[in-house]
Amino acid sequence: MRPLLFITSNKNKASECKQILASLGVPVDICLKEYTEVQRSNVREVAAESARMLSRELSYRPFFIEDSALEIHVLRGFPGPYSSYVYKTLGCRGILKLMSGVKDRRAKFRSVLALVDSSDRVHIVEAEVSGYITLEERGNTGWGFDPIFAPLEGSGETYAEMGPQKNRVSHRAKALRKLAEYISSWTQG
Protein backbone atom coordinates (compact mmCIF):
# COMPACT_ATOMS: atom_id res chain seq x y z
CA MET A 1 0.00 0.00 0.00
CA ARG A 2 1.09 3.53 -0.75
CA PRO A 3 2.06 5.56 2.32
CA LEU A 4 -0.67 7.74 3.73
CA LEU A 5 -0.06 11.43 3.27
CA PHE A 6 -0.75 13.55 6.34
CA ILE A 7 -1.36 17.20 5.52
CA THR A 8 -0.93 19.77 8.26
CA SER A 9 0.62 23.16 8.86
CA ASN A 10 1.54 22.21 12.43
CA LYS A 11 5.04 20.71 12.85
CA ASN A 12 4.22 19.43 16.34
CA LYS A 13 1.12 17.63 15.11
CA ALA A 14 3.10 16.21 12.16
CA SER A 15 5.77 14.78 14.44
CA GLU A 16 3.22 13.35 16.88
CA CYS A 17 1.16 11.68 14.13
CA LYS A 18 4.23 10.25 12.42
CA GLN A 19 5.46 8.71 15.71
CA ILE A 20 2.07 7.25 16.58
CA LEU A 21 1.41 5.80 13.12
CA ALA A 22 4.95 4.38 12.93
CA SER A 23 4.31 2.55 16.21
CA LEU A 24 1.18 1.08 14.58
CA GLY A 25 3.06 -0.01 11.45
CA VAL A 26 1.30 2.48 9.16
CA PRO A 27 3.58 4.14 6.59
CA VAL A 28 3.00 7.90 6.46
CA ASP A 29 4.54 10.83 4.62
CA ILE A 30 4.13 14.36 5.93
CA CYS A 31 3.16 17.37 3.85
CA LEU A 32 3.63 20.61 5.79
CA LYS A 33 1.16 22.83 3.99
CA GLU A 34 -0.89 25.86 4.93
CA TYR A 35 -4.48 25.48 3.83
CA THR A 36 -7.69 27.34 4.42
CA GLU A 37 -9.55 25.78 7.28
CA VAL A 38 -13.25 26.36 6.91
CA GLN A 39 -15.13 27.59 9.95
CA ARG A 40 -18.12 25.53 11.05
CA SER A 41 -19.93 25.01 14.32
CA ASN A 42 -18.32 21.63 15.00
CA VAL A 43 -14.92 20.11 14.43
CA ARG A 44 -16.28 17.16 12.42
CA GLU A 45 -17.70 19.52 9.78
CA VAL A 46 -14.46 21.53 9.75
CA ALA A 47 -12.35 18.43 9.07
CA ALA A 48 -14.69 17.00 6.42
CA GLU A 49 -15.03 20.25 4.48
CA SER A 50 -11.30 21.03 4.71
CA ALA A 51 -10.52 17.55 3.33
CA ARG A 52 -12.96 18.07 0.45
CA MET A 53 -11.33 21.40 -0.39
CA LEU A 54 -7.85 19.83 -0.36
CA SER A 55 -9.03 16.94 -2.54
CA ARG A 56 -9.75 19.45 -5.31
CA GLU A 57 -6.15 20.76 -5.08
CA LEU A 58 -4.15 17.54 -4.68
CA SER A 59 -3.81 14.45 -6.82
CA TYR A 60 -2.11 12.24 -4.18
CA ARG A 61 -4.36 9.68 -2.52
CA PRO A 62 -4.90 8.53 0.17
CA PHE A 63 -4.38 11.56 2.39
CA PHE A 64 -5.77 12.71 5.68
CA ILE A 65 -5.98 15.77 7.85
CA GLU A 66 -6.62 16.10 11.57
CA ASP A 67 -8.50 18.72 13.50
CA SER A 68 -8.71 18.85 17.26
CA ALA A 69 -10.95 20.67 19.65
CA LEU A 70 -10.76 21.43 23.33
CA GLU A 71 -14.34 21.47 24.61
CA ILE A 72 -14.90 22.94 28.06
CA HIS A 73 -18.19 21.85 29.63
CA VAL A 74 -19.02 24.98 31.63
CA LEU A 75 -18.25 27.13 28.57
CA ARG A 76 -20.74 25.08 26.49
CA GLY A 77 -18.03 23.40 24.46
CA PHE A 78 -15.94 26.53 23.85
CA PRO A 79 -13.41 26.85 22.28
CA GLY A 80 -14.44 23.76 20.26
CA PRO A 81 -13.79 24.25 16.54
CA TYR A 82 -12.11 27.58 17.31
CA SER A 83 -9.43 25.99 19.50
CA SER A 84 -6.51 26.87 17.23
CA TYR A 85 -7.55 30.51 16.98
CA VAL A 86 -8.25 30.73 20.72
CA TYR A 87 -4.86 29.23 21.50
CA LYS A 88 -3.13 31.75 19.22
CA THR A 89 -5.03 34.70 20.72
CA LEU A 90 -5.68 33.78 24.36
CA GLY A 91 -3.35 30.86 24.97
CA CYS A 92 -3.40 28.69 28.06
CA ARG A 93 -3.32 31.70 30.36
CA GLY A 94 -6.42 33.16 28.72
CA ILE A 95 -8.36 29.93 29.22
CA LEU A 96 -7.21 29.77 32.84
CA LYS A 97 -8.39 33.35 33.31
CA LEU A 98 -11.81 32.47 31.82
CA MET A 99 -11.98 29.54 34.24
CA SER A 100 -10.88 31.54 37.28
CA GLY A 101 -13.12 30.72 40.22
CA VAL A 102 -15.00 28.03 38.28
CA LYS A 103 -15.38 24.74 40.15
CA ASP A 104 -16.70 22.64 37.26
CA ARG A 105 -13.55 22.16 35.20
CA ARG A 106 -14.70 19.23 33.06
CA ALA A 107 -13.39 19.24 29.50
CA LYS A 108 -12.87 16.97 26.52
CA PHE A 109 -10.21 16.86 23.88
CA ARG A 110 -11.61 15.65 20.55
CA SER A 111 -9.64 14.55 17.47
CA VAL A 112 -11.30 14.21 14.07
CA LEU A 113 -9.43 12.65 11.16
CA ALA A 114 -10.74 13.12 7.63
CA LEU A 115 -9.30 10.56 5.21
CA VAL A 116 -9.71 10.98 1.44
CA ASP A 117 -9.41 7.64 -0.35
CA SER A 118 -8.50 6.84 -3.97
CA SER A 119 -12.16 7.28 -4.99
CA ASP A 120 -12.31 10.76 -3.41
CA ARG A 121 -14.59 9.58 -0.63
CA VAL A 122 -14.13 11.28 2.73
CA HIS A 123 -14.06 8.95 5.72
CA ILE A 124 -14.30 10.40 9.23
CA VAL A 125 -12.68 8.83 12.28
CA GLU A 126 -12.88 10.49 15.66
CA ALA A 127 -12.03 9.96 19.28
CA GLU A 128 -12.17 11.93 22.48
CA VAL A 129 -10.64 11.94 25.91
CA SER A 130 -12.49 13.28 28.94
CA GLY A 131 -10.55 15.27 31.48
CA TYR A 132 -10.42 18.61 33.20
CA ILE A 133 -8.78 22.00 33.01
CA THR A 134 -6.10 22.35 35.66
CA LEU A 135 -5.76 25.38 37.95
CA GLU A 136 -2.39 26.30 36.46
CA GLU A 137 -0.09 25.40 33.58
CA ARG A 138 1.93 22.27 34.35
CA GLY A 139 4.62 20.44 32.41
CA ASN A 140 7.35 21.23 29.91
CA THR A 141 6.61 18.85 27.05
CA GLY A 142 3.77 18.94 24.59
CA TRP A 143 2.27 21.96 22.91
CA GLY A 144 -0.98 23.89 22.56
CA PHE A 145 -3.35 23.35 25.48
CA ASP A 146 -1.33 20.35 26.77
CA PRO A 147 -0.17 22.20 29.94
CA ILE A 148 -3.76 22.79 31.16
CA PHE A 149 -5.54 19.55 30.18
CA ALA A 150 -5.39 16.46 32.41
CA PRO A 151 -7.21 13.31 31.26
CA LEU A 152 -9.49 11.59 33.79
CA GLU A 153 -7.88 8.23 33.11
CA GLY A 154 -4.42 8.64 34.49
CA SER A 155 -2.45 9.93 37.42
CA GLY A 156 -3.62 13.54 37.24
CA GLU A 157 -0.76 14.60 34.99
CA THR A 158 -1.40 17.06 32.19
CA TYR A 159 -0.53 16.05 28.65
CA ALA A 160 2.52 18.33 28.99
CA GLU A 161 3.72 16.38 32.04
CA MET A 162 3.36 12.96 30.40
CA GLY A 163 6.18 13.04 27.88
CA PRO A 164 6.05 10.07 25.47
CA GLN A 165 3.12 8.54 27.41
CA LYS A 166 0.87 11.19 25.83
CA ASN A 167 1.24 9.44 22.45
CA ARG A 168 -0.38 6.34 23.94
CA VAL A 169 -3.35 7.94 25.71
CA SER A 170 -4.27 11.16 23.89
CA HIS A 171 -7.38 11.87 21.84
CA ARG A 172 -5.19 11.98 18.73
CA ALA A 173 -3.57 8.61 19.53
CA LYS A 174 -7.01 7.03 19.96
CA ALA A 175 -8.22 8.45 16.63
CA LEU A 176 -5.04 7.33 14.85
CA ARG A 177 -5.48 3.79 16.22
CA LYS A 178 -9.01 3.78 14.77
CA LEU A 179 -7.62 5.04 11.45
CA ALA A 180 -5.00 2.26 11.42
CA GLU A 181 -7.73 -0.34 12.04
CA TYR A 182 -9.84 1.13 9.25
CA ILE A 183 -6.93 1.12 6.80
CA SER A 184 -6.04 -2.48 7.67
CA SER A 185 -9.58 -3.44 6.62
CA TRP A 186 -8.73 -2.19 3.08
CA THR A 187 -5.97 -4.77 2.72
CA GLN A 188 -8.04 -7.56 4.29
CA GLY A 189 -11.23 -6.89 2.31
What amount of the residues lies in strands?
A: 25-35%
Total domains: 1
Question: Total number of β-strand segments?
Answer: 7
Gyration radius (Cα, Å) is 16 Å
Q: Mean pLDDT across all residues, rounded?
A: 94
Shape: globular
SSE sequence, one letter per element: EHEHEEHHEEEHHH
Low-pLDDT regions: none
> Treating each run of at least 4 consecutive H or I residues as one helix, how many helices?
7
The major beta sheet can be summarized as: 7 strands, mixed
CATH architecture: Alpha-Beta Complex
Q: Structural class, from helix and strand content?
A: alpha/beta
Q: What is the CATH first-level class name?
A: Alpha Beta
Query: What level of helicity do the residues show?
Result: 25-40%
**CATH fold topology:** Maf protein
- Tell me the distance between the termini: 13 Å
Q: Gist?
A:
With 189 residues, the protein is of the alpha/beta class. Helix content is 37%, strand content 25%. The protein has a single domain (4-188), classed as Maf protein, CATH 3.90.950.
What can you see in these coordinates?
The protein contains 7 helices and 7 strands; from the N terminus they run E-H-E-H-E-E-H-H-E-E-E-H-H-H. Helix content is 37%, strand content 25%. 38% of the residues are buried. With 189 residues, it is of the alpha/beta class. A hairpin with a 6-residue loop joins strand 3 and strand 4. It has a single domain (4-188), classed as Maf protein (Alpha-Beta Complex). It has helices at residues 11-23, 43-57, 83-89, 91-98, 159-162, 166-169, 171-188; strands at 4-8, 28-32, 63-72, 79-80, 106-116, 122-133, 149-151. The chain is globular. Strands 1, 2, 3, 4, 5, 6 and 7 form a 7-stranded mixed beta sheet that branches. The two termini are 13 Å apart.
